[in-house]
Task: structure prediction
Amino acid sequence: VQLQASGGGLVQPGGSLRLACPASRFTMNLYDIAWFRRAPGKEREGVSCISSNNGNAFYANSVKGRFTISIDNAKNTVYLQMNSLKPEDTAVYYCAADLIPDPVFPACDSSIKSGYYDIWGQGTQVTVSS
Result:
């Protein structure tokens, strides 16, 4: 079971990037999937998640309206489309999956809590700078 995030890089403020995270050995749309980030000197932050139950997506207030999470079922890959990037979006971004779901307390909700996620991909660096 593996996740592998990619797509990070250096981009100017206002620019866009699309992060990708393909999964191996499990079917991604059967589980709650999330993106997190960690900026230098800061705690890990939940960015977005997508629910396996109904496909609903949740976003941190700081990225709402600018970022979009999606899953390509044919490629078994989750994406994070990031538009209108700001310097404060600079961080290492991680994808994660909840492979041991709790039916009472789903991993993906508006709080995007990291403790529910079991499998983590290696991070990809996003740097927003002019």
